[in-house]
């Protein structure tokens, strides 16, 4: 079985890998809205997963409104 330190659970199912970590499939969720994500189908900000729309899009919009520098974030 696999042990997942970020959620302190174990599973017999094979993990999904994203952001350099192994995740239970149901634990790979958007930090803001908790929508379940797929490896390779989400964005990252400060090491945390976000859905592309609407949550990551709102982060980008917020950056634009505050004048902070925007940077390219890899999709994982």
UniProtKB/TrEMBL annotation:
<dbReference type="GO" id="GO:0071493">
    <property type="term" value="P:cellular response to UV-B"/>
</dbReference>
<keyword id="KW-0440">LIM domain</keyword>
<feature type="domain" description="LIM zinc-binding">
    <location>
        <begin position="2"/>
        <end position="62"/>
    </location>
</feature>
<dbReference type="GO" id="GO:0010468">
    <property type="term" value="P:regulation of gene expression"/>
</dbReference>
<keyword id="KW-0007">Acetylation</keyword>
<keyword id="KW-0488">Methylation</keyword>
<dbReference type="GO" id="GO:0005737">
    <property type="term" value="C:cytoplasm"/>
</dbReference>
<dbReference type="GO" id="GO:0008270">
    <property type="term" value="F:zinc ion binding"/>
</dbReference>
<keyword id="KW-0862">Zinc</keyword>
<dbReference type="GO" id="GO:0010043">
    <property type="term" value="P:response to zinc ion"/>
</dbReference>
<dbReference type="InterPro" id="IPR001781">
    <property type="entry name" value="Znf_LIM"/>
</dbReference>
<protein>
    <recommendedName>
        <fullName>Cysteine-rich protein 1</fullName>
    </recommendedName>
</protein>
<comment type="function">
    <text>Seems to have a role in zinc absorption and may function as an intracellular zinc transport protein.</text>
</comment>
<dbReference type="GO" id="GO:0071236">
    <property type="term" value="P:cellular response to antibiotic"/>
</dbReference>
<dbReference type="GO" id="GO:0042277">
    <property type="term" value="F:peptide binding"/>
</dbReference>
<dbReference type="GO" id="GO:0006955">
    <property type="term" value="P:immune response"/>
</dbReference>
<dbReference type="GO" id="GO:0008630">
    <property type="term" value="P:intrinsic apoptotic signaling pathway in response to DNA damage"/>
</dbReference>
<keyword id="KW-0479">Metal-binding</keyword>
<dbReference type="Pfam" id="PF00412">
    <property type="entry name" value="LIM"/>
</dbReference>
């Amino acid at each position: 079985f696999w042990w997942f330190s970020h959620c302190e659970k174990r599973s017999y199912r094979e993990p999904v890998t994203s952001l350099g970590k192994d995740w239970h499939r149901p634990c790979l969720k958007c930090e803001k809205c908790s929508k379940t994500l797929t490896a390779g189908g989400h964005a990252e900000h400060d090491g945390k997963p976000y859905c592309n729309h609407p949550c990551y899009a709102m982060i980008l919009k917020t950056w634009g409104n505050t004048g902070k520098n925007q940077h390219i974030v890899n999709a994982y």
